[in-house]
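Forum: Protein Structure Q&A
Topic: Joint prediction for protein chains with partners

I've read a bunch of threads here and the consensus seems to be that you should model interacting components together rather than docking separate models afterwards. I'd like to see that in practice. Below is the full input, 1100 residues plus whatever partners are listed. Could one of the regulars post the assembled result?
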Amino acid sequence: MSAAARAAESGMTHVLLEAEAHLSNTIFRYQKGKHVMAEPGILPLRSPVGFEAGKREAILDVWDRGMADLKVNVRYQAEVTAISGQRGDFTITLAKGETVRARHVVLAIGMQGNLRKLGVEGEDLTQVQYQLDDPEAYSGETIIVIGAGDAAIENALALAEAGNIVSIVNRRDEFSRAKDGNNSAILAAIEEERVGFYPSASPKQVESLPAGHDSGKPLRLILNARDGEAEIYCDRIIARLGAIPPRKFVESCGITFPSADPTAIPAVSAQYESNVEGLYIVGALAGYPLIKQAMNQGYEVIEFIAGRPVQPADEPLLETVFARMPFGLSVDENLDLIQQVVPVLAPLTTLQLREFMLDSVVHCPRDGEVVFELNDYTNSFYSIVAGDVAIQIDPHDPQKTVVLSAGQFFGEMSLISGRRRSATVRAVGGKTVLVETPRRSMNKLLQSVDAARDVIDRSFILRAFQTQVAPGVSAEPLKPIIENSTLEHYKAGQALFSEGDPGDALYLIRSGSVTVSRDIGGNSVPIAYVAAGNYVGEMALVSDMPRMATVRAAVACDVLKVDGAAFKALMASEPAIRERIEAQYKSRLLANAQAEQRSRDGSMIGFLVSQGLGEATDVLLIDESLCVRCDHCEKACASTHGNVSRLNREAGPTFASLHVPTSCRHCEHPHCMKDCPPDAIRRAPNGEVYINDSCIGCGNCERNCPYGVIQMGAVSAAKPKLWQWIFTGMGLAPGTSVPYDKSSGTPKKAVKCDMCKDLAGGPACVRACPTGAALRLSPEEFMELAAERV
Amino acid sequence: MSLHESFLTHARGRWIYRAAVLCLIAVGLYVWQDPKAGPNGGTWLGYGLGSVGLLLIVWLALLGARKRSYASRLGTVKGWTSAHVWLGLSLVVVGTLHTGFEFGLNIHTLAWVLMMLVIASGLWGVLVYRRFPSLITERRGNLPVEDIVREIADMDRQLLVTAAELGKDTHERTLQSIQRTQLGGGFWQQVRGVSERAGDGLMSRLRDELNKPVMAAADPQMQSRAGADGNATMMFVASAFVSGEQNARERETRRKLLDLFSRKKALVASLNADVTRRARMSLWLYLHVPLTLALLASLLAHVVSVFFYW
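Posted by a regular:
Agreed with the consensus. Here's the joint model:
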């Protein structure tokens, strides 16, 4: 539409072939009254027809009038069935048998004509639908919405509004693909129980029930959910799983796809030209589903066809990003260079790459400059565009390094595991050029481009193996292992394997953590806690005996399952690995035997893990046999943090006089970070998770924290005067928590523990404890503590 | 070394060692010196010990300010507390040797007596701080206090709903009982213990009554005892069993009400006992701090009188 408008505006002969009886079918089919967003906000619009965020009706109206004003030549109900020919001579066949001839063809069909289905039995039942035109058409029904994108969220909210009992099923536990506004809205609805939520669940089967079934419902949906299978009876299922390219049609036009992946989209040049010269593709089918972007492309493609070079709208923004690139190249040349050099970015379309680069930062470190240090808590991802970096593999010897060169990437370990950096990385040679991408953009990429995720997953497997199991072993002998490894996801509490099972695999924990427990006298007694980056399950492989313990996910875990036979073969050929594994085996055997004798130790681990210490990086623990309940820890917190304490000493459970107060655990993958619209929650280099000033007070983090350690409050400038208070008793006592004063006009923002990162000498709560009861501990110290308190 | 380390052994007993050295030096010098007029506060050692003692006392009193200077980076509060305890104890030696054992009915001896009282109250504090924290945790049974309070509020709601089913009278009595429930109280009340306790004997007796529904008449002895124990509401509820005019459902509701009452009473009692233990844990401070202030005042008098009137 935008292309036709631009063609009309610039006086070119054109025809807009529209399959339907109206323009813009995708937006036309949006639900009534839908608020259409105009993302990305920073991008200027350059189409001859207007577009601003607003209601569907208003937008369609603006477009219809714009098209009429420009006298665009539109043929309605002209569905295209085939396109043949080449530049200068295309023949377009319509469904009615007519043909249209053209010199250039712009394919702007999007993907909505080809919706993705559930892919399970029962997907074609009549009550299972993939579109929702008017949510008002239903009321009083039990409706399950499946999907995690904007469409699913908007449908679920509107259906709930219309008086239906709505639940939303999401394959993951967050809605990170959705726009920020929708994300907050659905989280609020779930929180207020207006919409039910099945996180980390996927449909297994849909069954049609006979009329008069006990449930009174016509459908039964079976879900694979976090805690096993769930059965839901409902009236209707609305699956909004996005669309996949209409591959058959596109391929019949001669356009090729880069991979067999059903979600793959055809590759286009920076001028949006496909491999068929003269045949251009814009919009969702070219990899960009946002309306504004597509409209801009419509304008741009006409300029390209007319031979008028035009810079993409994001050009000035990218110029700033690339300003630091040393080669003096244009934006396009830089993008080409990056894509040629860095294989992990190769599967991206130009447009995806442009967006990726918009969020990234280019670095040109000097020779020897440290990119990040071992144990830093940063979690961005680096691609090497030019030059080399050295990864220090021995923390004590800076000379022992592995060199990575242009095209490779690093930083993915921390990105995936959420743990500290596993090694120090330095630039070498002084010609290094790096692209640093923040965690958020990288996760978006990994979620939307499967090919890129595969590359990174495979590399993660190899590197995790090289660091944890087989240091110094090159990639070649590990190949069979990598090929025989699978990435598996376990829910909290799910067993990786159980005592007595045959030992057929080694498990490398990629993210999350696990507990090892043994059945002692009929009770399951946890004997150890193993964090991300380590492995479990080697004992049965070494001894060829059944599993000696049960290993369960303490929190949701991504685990790499390495085939046992392949691993045994590796041990046979690499004696160094065998030795290492056997040493580990012996120490575990010893630990198990010790743990059996002290079962309280085990329950202590169980307690700590149940309190979220399985995902903590630093936690405040109070020894209640020393704590005199003076609350100076809370007062110190309030006093050093704008008179709002971020710690509740009294709250929280106690086990064997060890008390876990309500205070931030600085999780590996902070739950609070998930849905922060302004991206205000950050991790400082030393691991502190803190909230910066850009907080908008939406409360998402408060809702997302499973430990209740974030609260909404307003810091105040009040400064209690110590000596005045001591001598006269007047004024505020030091450490008073000043209650929120609405009249001050200060908005409430999220406040949480920042581990006093800006104060010398460490956390004020610990420093203020008069008796030594308060301690902050790292995961390594939990075990020590558990062992000590027997 | 334990991860959690008590203030008493802070930094591997650094302050025990230092305080002991201070005492040894004081005793050594005292034994070694041989003043003509016998040992007293006026000798060079007397002045020396007196100055050290005075500085120590002033510094010890500053703990109150240090522990509230939350942004202070001047050592940790734990270190200060440790030093406070051990150096404070060393004052027994330093201060007493300063007197040269010349006691009398005067302002000077008053200062020494007050000092010893402050130290004694401090020692009590140390003992209390060793025992009570564990005791509080043990007795509370791992349930956080705020959960207990929430539970009690929840039971009150349930009590009212259940009582309403049994008619206006019961509802009103229940409401009154809830309004009379006392959690905590003034400081002395906390220390002594809040009096409303569930009479265990009475409870078991009520249960017995439930199990033999048909009784000739209300036992006057039981009623009088109920009054004495302040359990009038429970007796009121229970007495209906005795009258025998009830259907099975009403009986069941009554039983539920009684059950709720007894569970709530147990919770209230345990919460009040918890409050009492906390109050007793901090009781010593109410002696230690005022005595310290009195000590500082008497020291001022002592120093002024020594320098101006001796």
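Chain A touches chain B through 45 residues (CB under 8 Å).
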